[in-house]
Amino acid sequence: MLGIALGVTALITVLSVMNGFEQELRDRILGMASHASITTFGGKLEDWQGLARTVEGREHVVATAPYVRGEAMLSNGKSVSGALLRGILPEIEDGVSDVVSHITSGSLELLRPGEYGIVLGKELAFALGAGLGDQITVVTPQVTIGPTGAMPRLRRFTVVGIFNVGMYEYDRTVALVHIEDAARLLRMDDSVTGLRLKLDDVFNAPAVSRALSAELVGDYRVEDWTRQHANFFRAVKTEKRVMFIILTLIVAVAAFNIVSTLIMVVTDKQSDIAILRTLGMSPGSIMVIFIIQGALIGIMGTALGVACGVGLALNIETIVPAIEQLFNVKFLAADVYYISTVPSSLQWHDVWVMASVAMVLSLLATLYPAWRAARTQPAEALRYE
Question: Per residue in 29-40, pLDDT tens?
Answer without folding.
Answer: 887 888 899 998
